[in-house]
Amino acid sequence: MTKERLHIWWDLFVTFAKMGAITFGGGMAMLPILQREVVYLRHWATEEELIDYYAIGQCTPGIIAVNTSTFIGQKRGGVVGGIVASLGMVFPSLVFISVIAGLISNFSDIAAVRNAFAGIQVCVCVLIFNATLKLLKKSVIDRRTAVIFALVLAGSVVVNLSPVWFVLSSACAGAALKALEVRCQKRSERK
Amino acid sequence: MSYGLILLKLYWEFFKTGLFAVGGGMATLPFLKNIGETTGWYTYGDLMNMLAVSESTPGPIGINMATYVGFTVAGVPGAVVATVGEITPCIAVILIVAAFLRSFRANPWVERVFYGLRPASTGLIGAACVSVFLEVLTGIRIAGSGFVNGVSVSGEHLLLWPQLLLAAVLLALTNAVPKVRDLHPIVFIAFAAAVGIVFRFAGA
Predict the structure, then answer these.
(1) Closest chain A CA to residue B78
(2) Which residue, of A121, B20, B86, B199, has the fewest CB within 10 Å?
(3) C-alpha to C-alpha distance for A139 and B171, rounded to whole angstroms
(4) Residue B151, helix vs strand vs coil
(5) Is the predicted pLDDT of residue B145 greater than 70, yes or no?
């Protein structure tokens, strides 16, 4: 029994480590790989379950890839399974980045490396801008969400405050606005 | 600060990041910027280099960035502590949600809260985007020591024309040119690196 469980956990760790190592481009790029490994090859979850996990993983806090891994892991191997699957997912990153970071800090004095990174920073600007545009289409869906977006953007540039406070106050604002809307609708229905 | 205390602070800062960053890897950027500003562990320029490497290596971008920041601050143990700190709240939240999956999706308050959270998360990334543009493309800096941020102009050039030109070219390539815009970011990063070397962007 315990041996069987250990086997399940080890299997989860290895499978998710493999997926973490071959995924380029973050959470969104991972979906087809997850479908292949988890749904078609191993039957750990159905197609519908995976889509559900993904949808929830995107709207709950944290890293989408880790959220989805936890979901699938806990379904297959309980709480420990969820933890093991997530650790597997991040394991390759730990190895790759530690090696690369060590290398780069050794070469950062070379002129060509410094020039290259000055160019790369321009590209990062554009990539962040594109990511913002993409998120904007999904998150700003009406006038009220546009106001929340504009207030947080301006506030975060002008005021020197941890992002945590903006997140908390917007969550409250969103909940209050939506609740108010539902209440108004009910009242007008009664009339 | 002793080494043990640094590791403890790393864990706590990344725990908060994992708990409050909604919408994946890029959403952690404003938090990482804030950590750099309040602790002085790394500059915004350092963070952008880390982001570039994180986009060009396999694995989730948010995790790559956490690992990189942790490694920069405290070596391999720092990398492990930062990454574990960031995924602790993710795992906890999902395990709780999984236990109440049906009622979680049906609960109207969940949708209401996320109605406000999503544009806020985008606004935070937008603000990070503004500071990144100013930092890389101009001599204007926004920084704060008190409650309100101040604006300063540093260097002899207000606008960095070679950088602005490259940004315009990349913006067009990644948005307007069919087929090219669907290429992996690593292609554009490599292109920008080559331009940086040929035209000596750092002046080195």
Answers:
(1) A98
(2) B199
(3) 22
(4) strand
(5) no
Query: Which one of A83, A97, A182 makes the best mutation probe of the B interface by having the most chain B beta carbons within 10 Å?
Result: A97
* Rounded Cα distance, B109 and B169, in Å: 44
Asked if residues B188 and B173 have their Cβ atoms less than 8 Å apart, the reply is: yes
Segment 117-136 of chain A within 8 Å of chain B by CB: 117-132, 135-136
* Closest Cα in chain A to B117: A171
Q: What is the pLDDT of residues B61-79, one digit of tens each?
A: 999 999 999 999 999 999 9
Between CA A9 and CA B179 the distance in angstroms is 41
**Which tokens sit at B117?**
């959270």
ipTM score here? 0.86
> What would the mean pLDDT of A56-76 be, rounded to a whole number?
88
Q: What is the pLDDT of residues B76-103, one digit of tens each?
A: 999 999 999 999 999 999 999 888 877 7
End-to-end CA distance of chain A: give it in Å, rounded: 64
